[in-house]
Structures are given as structure tokens and as C-alpha cells.
Amino acid sequence: MTYRRLPFDQYFIDTSEDFQKTGRVRAKIEYIGVEYTCDPEKHPIEHLLGIRHEVNYAFWYDEERDVIQIHFQKTNSKSDWFANIFEFASKYYDAFPFEGELVTLRVHRGWGDMYKAIKHIIRDQWQALHLAHPQAETEIIGWSLGSGQAMLCCQDLNYNFGIRPYLYTYGSVRPFKARPTERALLERYLNSICRKCCNFANRNDIVTYLPPFPGFRMILRREIGREAISLGKLLNPKLYHTSYHMKELYRRPKHRGENQAQDTGL
Fold this sequence. Notes:
alpha/beta; 9 helices; 24% strand
């Protein structure tokens, strides 16, 4: 079956649990929560405060399109904010070969620890669905915190199974970290791991610039939104971080002679 994607705004509505109450969610997504604790030596503050984390994900098989979907939930608890804010980069994978060179994958530690807590579950559930539907494509989807998990999942499934999923994220964070001498190589590697990478970032969405430190990056940032960037708008995440349900964000302006605006995605 030829792959057929949904409209970009629909992926956001589904994954955001219809945050804007549009009434267009296809089905209620039942997230599964997995609790985990962090290494006390690497996370002494969290260990002292007795903080337990939870990561939330969902699998969905779309029979009509023959697609396996993996969803990751947004920030959902106070403990998620510790993972978001109080952690910095650490080594995630030992060096591995790519294009005749060695890539050392470094990620934001909080988000990396979160995905590590469920990576074997994700792999097992994906394999089970893949065995049942061997021709199905895989879509990985997330918003906000979930975008970071989606990108790490994409890298994980590509690295371990050789698949190249379709990746759709919204209000996307920057989970990967590169040293200055490795940035070009890392970008080529990250751009190679998915069949189509659409990590949508409204230029006035402050979350898409986090962490705000040099070297952090997402996979192939797709900047959307026609409004000029400004400090006032960046300080309004209530609007710019939650408005990815608006179809017009994904269309480029018409040019003379065109009948309609064009979808920016594929």
C-alpha cells in the first residue's frame, strides 16, 4: 500500500489530546505511563527530594493507511519539569561509525534518561506490531516534551532495526548536543535516520529554542509561522506553543499563477 500521510494539523490534534477543543481528534489516545527513578549519583537533587518520573507513550495501528503510530505525551507532571529544566547534556551512545567517521551521540540528560526507561518496551511493542503488519510504515509523533522523546525513538528504531520512520513533531525541543567540530557530521547523521522529518517550530515558540545553549539541536527544524519574531511573542507560549492545530501554518503563500497555497511538507 502506498504511504498516505494525514494533514499535519491532524497529527497535532491527535497527539495534543485536542488541546484547543477543536473536536477533530480521530480517537482518544490511551497513554501508558511507566515510572522510573534516576541514578542518584547523576541526579543528587532529585534523589534527595525523592522525585519519581513517569514517561507516557501510546501505540496505534491505523488499519486504513497501514501505518504504525507511536505517540509521546507532552509535559504532564511536576517531575517532568525536573527532566526538562535541571539537566544538561551527557553521553548517550558510545562512538559508532557513520560515513567513515565516528559519531558520539550526546543528548539532554533528562530526556535521554526518560527514553532509556522505556526503550526496551518500545522496541518490543514495535517489533510485535511489525511482525503482524510487515508492510506498515512507522510514524512517530510528539508535542513539546513528547517531541524530544519522538526524536530519540526515531534514532533508536533506526539504529537497532534499520527502519526510517516518518517523524512529525510540534513545538519541538532540541534534545541532541554536538561539539563544534562534530556539528556538520551529526546533522548529516540525524537527517539520515528518518524517511521524512517534519519537526515543526513556530518561530515565536520559545520552547523550540530550548535548551538555550550552544550546540543543542533538533532533527531538521521546519520553521513555520509568518509573523515576525519578537520578544513579546516569545514570552507568550500559551498562544504560540499551542496553536499548531492551525492549518494555515503549514501552507506557503501563493505565487502568481498558482491556484492555491501549497502544503509545505511533502
